[in-house]
Amino acid sequence: MQWRGRRGSQNIEDRRSRSGGRAGGIAVGGGSVGLLAIVVIGYFLGVDLTPLLNDQSMQNTGGGEITAADEEAAQFVSVTLADTEDVWATVFREQLGETYTPAALVLYKGVTQSPCGGASGATGPFYCPGDRKVYLDTDFFVAMERQLGAGGDFAAAYVVAHEIGHHVQDELGILSQANAARGSSSEADANAISVRIELQADCFAGIWARHAEAQFGSIEAGDMNEAVNAARQIGDDTLQRNAGRVPSPHTFTHGTSEQRSRWFQTGHDSGQLESCDTFAAERL
User: Is residue 133 helix, strand or coil?
Assistant: First the structure.
């Protein structure tokens, strides 16, 4: 992905210098309260790491100094976020005749807090409807490559685009309706609704990839394979299997590896919002 030297977003809230070992007065990370925060926040995650919580390599290590690698990752995220702003402004204008309002993205290192709960390295990146912001610790990109087998800059861009996909759902009124439906459903039905939400965000990420390629010419050979591989590596079945569990479909909240990669590809192939209606799809 060609990103260096390109426009960055102004919608970055950098909390890295004030991230610390506590969030909202509650210790987050390795303790039982931290695990509870992860469960509470789990629905909003683009990457559900709860199957891997027993893996110490996935636990938050807490703050630390901001390194040159951190700064490069932050610049990368800023450029990717700017790309999503330009793409979705175009898609909303051309396909809906409406104006897109960009989301803010919070960069943190270690832990921070959000209206959706405490955020740490173990929660993974997520979108919070409470303040309409994406939360991201760029150390997650390292975990993607080392622990999840999903390396590459375009794999990281896919994660950002997926979270912005949730903001697009929020902009369209889809997320609030789906949340209301989840609130009045059984656990199994709520999980099924969550899967449809997540797969639609994957599809929206695919739309972004197609338009980014057309608008900026930033996509390089192998980039799409990185994104598709990332989608596969963070499927519920793969995460549960890698955690030593037998995949349990009734507990899935994000979709299988096959589903996540296929819906991403669907969005990329069509470039159209209407192709991403996972709520009307008979086959996910």
Answer: strand
| pLDDT of 23 strictly over 50 | no
**pLDDT, tens digit, 9 for 90 and up, residues 258-271:** 999 999 999 999 99
Residue 220, CB half-sphere, CA atoms under 13 Å: how many? Answer: 8
Helix (H) or strand (E) holding 230: helix 223-233
Structure-token match 């809906």, residue found? 96
Spatial separation of the C-alpha atoms in residues 104 and 115, rounded to whole Å:
14
Find the range with the poorest average confidence among 52-56, 95-99, 197-201: 52-56
Domain boundaries, the chain: 12-276
Contacts of 72 (CB under 8 A, 6+ apart): none
User: In terms of pTM, does the model score above 0.70?
Assistant: yes
pLDDT digits (tens, 9 = 90+) for 54-84: 444 444 444 567 788 888 889 989 999 999 9
Q: Which long-range contacts (CB under 8 A, 24 or more apart) does 144-149 make?
A: 144/230, 144/233, 146/57, 147/52, 147/55, 147/57, 147/58, 148/230, 148/233, 148/234, 149/229, 149/233
- β-partners of residue 23 are 26
- Tell me the C-alpha distance between 190 and 192, whole Å: 5
d(CA 227, CA 209): 9
Q: How far apart are CA 102 and CA 203, in angstroms?
A: 18
